[in-house]
Amino acid sequence: MIDFEKLKNIILSNSSFLLTTHVNPDADAIGSEIAFYFLLKKLGKKAFIINHSALPYNMEFFNKDNIIQRYDEELHKNVFNEVDILVALDFNRADRTVSMEKAFRKSTKLKICIDHHQDPEEFVDHQFIDTDYCATGQIIYDFIKQTKIVELDFEIAEPLYAAIMTDTGSFRFDRTTAEVHNTIAELLKHGVNPEQVYDKLYDQSKFSKVKLLGRALNSISLLADNKIGYMIITQKDFEELGAIESDTENFVNYNLSIENVVVGILFIELKNGFKVSFRSKGSIPVNQLANEFGGGGHTNAAGARFFTNNMQEMIPVILSKAELYLKN
Question: Is the Cα dihedral 113, 117, 120, 123 positive or negative?
Fold first, then answer.
């Protein structure tokens, strides 16, 4: 249970805030940042959003006033010690900030984390984490409703809607509870247009992304009596199609759309290493599988990042581990 009154007191007792989120942010990450930013602005606070990764193009509609900055070590070298509070949103391990990690850790300012993922690292002063929530955006919504710190309006409601909608798989994942639908109903009362939000997030893909999806689908292989599906995207695919890493969001879920598949894995070769996304059905804990390789996440959705260029060698190792989780 999150102590919302404690969080409220921290906010009201301080004047300036730096908000950040994880590498390759999804809509829960960006939506939570935007909503929290406007919450702070309504209170007359100074707020900055600075992220390691560039803002994905399908979320640019959230950034009309260019409030989200991409981290530049020289430009932002002092900001970590010029604000009162550092806020980690939708992640709970410092290495998820990549280029910002060193500056984040070294800062002497008060650090807080608002998140819903499992296995948090002790890198902040105060954790506001509850893994029962479907999204970090839902935590922020409950915080606003329970403390009445500000009034909900469209500026806050739209990014929270996007955060919750995407992290529940458009309301189809197992954490889509009656309470979640009640939250969504309340957000819609503030002018959120579900059709427009979905269209901007999912139906305005660049042609390069669609072509990359075709490569990914063509690469799918099955093993373990067709219970594991996996796909591979290489640097050659990115280069030939002009696609980018963020284009791969949700690709891994296509594995689970195949009959009998209960574990889906996506291998993505990067310029510096590679990353792996894991998805599962039922009680198969792919977060524990990811944890074996230094990653983490939720029971049914997790990931790991590798800073070595031996993806092809590691693929059979990771697949073998995945088969053990099926047996257990």
Answer: negative
What span, in angstroms and rounded, lies between the C-alpha atoms of 175 and 120? Answer: 20
Q: Amino acid letter at 283?
A: S
- pLDDT tens across the length of the chain (328 residues): 899 999 999 999 999 999 999 999 999 999 999 999 999 999 999 999 999 999 999 999 999 889 999 999 999 989 999 999 999 999 999 999 999 999 999 999 999 999 999 889 999 999 999 999 999 999 999 999 999 999 999 999 999 999 999 999 999 988 899 999 999 999 999 999 999 999 999 999 999 999 999 999 999 999 999 999 999 999 999 999 999 999 999 999 999 999 999 999 999 999 999 999 999 999 999 999 999 999 988 899 999 999 999 999 999 999 999 999 998 7
Q: Which of 12, 246, 38 is nearest to 160 (CA)?
A: 38
List, in order of start, the domains of the chain with CATH numbers.
Answer: 4-201 (3.90.1640.10), 207-327 (3.10.310.30)
Helix (H, G, I), strand (E, B) or coil at 263: strand
Strands (E), 43-138: 46-51, 68-70, 85-89, 110-115, 126-129
> How far is residue 160 from each of residues 4, 249, 281, 327, measured CA to CA in Å?
17, 19, 26, 38
Q: Which of 86, 88, 94 lies closest to 116, judged by CA?
A: 88
pTM: predicted TM-score of the whole model, two decimal places: 0.92
Contact residues for 257 (Cβ-Cβ < 8 A; gap 6+): none
